[in-house]
Write a structure and sequence with these properties.
alpha/beta, binds ligand BV8, three-stranded antiparallel β-sheet, six-stranded parallel β-sheet, globular
Length: 249
């Protein structure tokens, strides 16, 4: 079963933690996943950060450390190849914060939940800045811009936590791609890879794409709860499935 791409097909891809699993990055909800060992409320919500910023920084510092040791896998590279051939008719939206798509060479890329390697301030509106520092127990970095104004501000990972709004520009860019695809003459395909389809607004993209006329494809190790939202399901590890999935005609 191949996803056929011709000269005016548009393709919107959504990836989740499963696409990084073969690089050695733990997923969230599989056995021994991140959420099994870390209560979401304590490490991935603003309330959790307020309660114990040191715990949150330890959780993300460990993920930063791990992400520095891993490399993109054939699934990431397959998506770069497709982007190279399709140009602006391709957009990759990832829920992942590990930076592996960017390291593989993806450019038409939206990191909708932010990035492990960016930091911002919990208290002021400073721009997120590149940061790969790791913080041990009790080491919570302070915001120098807040300090310069005599205020106490704590730095935080520039990652979207549960209960936090996504960047409106991110959502607009995705909506614009879907709208352009709806108006265009050619075929429109939506492909979700390596995601359990549980977290919104990411999990709602398949419905938005289908409402715009997309044919919905899923490439996943197992059938997730929202498998019924897809017309096609290519089951298997994305590092094997993606390099064989696309057929250019
Ligand atoms: C929002 C950052 C508006 C953390 C993440 C009640 C109150 C408040 C909010 C809500 C609510 N009810 C619903 C919501 C909305 C909430 C939500 O969706 N909750 C869910 C859990 C019900 N969403 C939000 O809060 C979002 N904001 O809606 O704002 C709002 C505000 C207030 C109130 C209402 C609305 C913000 C969501 C972003 C949260 N942050 N990440 C971090 O990463 O450190 S989400 C987190 O889950 C990760 O980013 C992750 O990417 C994402 C989704 O997980 P998956 O990527 O799918 O990973 P998972 O492990 O689940 O699945 C892996 C899959 O891969 C599996 O299917 C597996 O079979 C497969 N697989 C494994 N190996 C392979 C493979 N596939 C292929 N190959 C392999 N080798």
């Amino acid at each position: 079963m191949r996803l056929t791409i011709d000269s005016d097909t548009r393709l919107l891809v959504l990836t989740g933690a499963g696409v990084s699993a073969e690089s050695g990055v733990p997923t969230f909800r599989d056995a021994n996943g991140l959420w099994e060992n870390h209560p979401i409320e304590q490490v991935a919500t603003p309330e959790g950060f307020r309660a114990d910023p040191g715990l949150v920084w330890r959780f993300y510092s460990e993920r930063r450390r791990k992400a520095k040791t891993v490399h993109p896998n054939p699934g990431h590279h397959a998506l770069v190849d497709v982007e190279t051939r399709m140009g602006d008719r391709f957009l990759l939206v990832t829920q992942n914060v590990d930076g592996l798509h960017r390291r593989a060479g993806s450019e038409r890329l939206v990191e909708m939940h932010g990035s492990l390697f960016e930091t911002r301030c919990f208290h002021c509106e400073r721009e997120p800045f590149a940061d790969d520092s790791e913080h041990g127990p009790g080491d919570v970095p302070a915001c120098d811009l807040c300090a310069a104004k005599g205020r106490r501000g704590l730095l935080r990972p520039a990652i979207v936590w549960f209960g936090e709004m996504l960047d409106p520009f991110v959502m607009q860019r995705i909506a614009r791609f879907i709208e352009d695809a709806r108006r265009a003459a050619g075929r429109f395909a939506f492909l979700a890879v390596g995601t359990s389809g549980l977290v919104y607004p990411a999990a709602g993209l398949v419905r938005e794409a289908r409402a715009a006329g997309a044919e919905a494809w899923l490439a996943n190790l197992e059938a997730p709860d929202n498998r019924g939202a897809f017309q096609h399901f290519a089951q298997g590890p994305s590092g094997k499935v993606l390099p064989e999935l696309f057929e250019f005609v």
